[in-house]
Amino acid sequence: GENVEQHPSTLSVQEGDSAVIKCTYSDSASNYFPWYKQELGKRPQLIIDIRSNVGEKKDQRIAVTLNKTAKHFSLHITETQPEDSAVYFCAASTGTASKLTFGTGTRLQVTL
Amino acid sequence: SAVISQKPSRDICQRGTSLTIQCQVDSQVTMMFWYRQQPGQSLTLIATANQGSEATYESGFVIDKFPISRPNLTFSTLTVSNMSPEDSSIYLCSAGRRDTGELFFGEGSRLTVL
Fold first, then answer.
1. Do A98 and B43 touch (CB under 8 A)?
2. How do beta strands B19-25 and B75-80 pair?
3. Which of A65, A92, B6, B69 could connect to A25 by a Cys-Cys bridge, CB 3.0–4.6 Å?
4. For residue A48, what pLDDT band results from cuts at 50, 70 and 90?
5. Which residues does residue B78 pair with via DSSP β-bridges, in sequence order?
6. Of A45, A97, A102, the CB nearest to B31
7. In this complex, do B45 and A89 lie within 8 Å of one another by their Cβ atoms?
8. More confident residue, B20 or A94
9. Beta strand B103-105 with B89-96: parallel, antiparallel or unpaired?
């Protein structure tokens, strides 16, 4: 089955700096890669996703890149703000609305 | 996006009892899943809830322990049977549509077993 690894497990950045979280996947059939943000005590919220036919996708301060050959994808957050502090999970699946395999999560802390 | 309601939001249960968690989606969805998230951990898929048929369980999860129903497209239940303290966790319902591809999560049901 699919295995998704995520690094780093914790990340602390100063407000205004950029943050990068990286994930690798094992199943070459995976073609859908969402990112979720989970604040303490809340449900995971989908923040951005990318499909295998696209190399990069951007939405305001967040962007995701995908390298199918290397089987890795990354989340980039620019101009970080304190409200970006949360746990971020990457995930992979083999189709739309298919079961997701999650990475282990990255706890991002944005300090003032 | 789909709105997913779960209940109960939390419960404290005694060892050996069973609890059923309900999940209701406000729109037509294709897929429904049940995940478990232990404190400070990632999300682990328990099973895919199939409409009108038996759920598809992931390795390490069995129907006798986690019976699942999905009588229609927008409603599913997960029962945690014969609970032990190791079952203390957050159980999350997830749902999505193939045409949009996105999966959304309910608020979760926090279960504590004493």
1. no
2. antiparallel
3. A92
4. very high
5. B21, B68
6. A97
7. no
8. B20
9. antiparallel
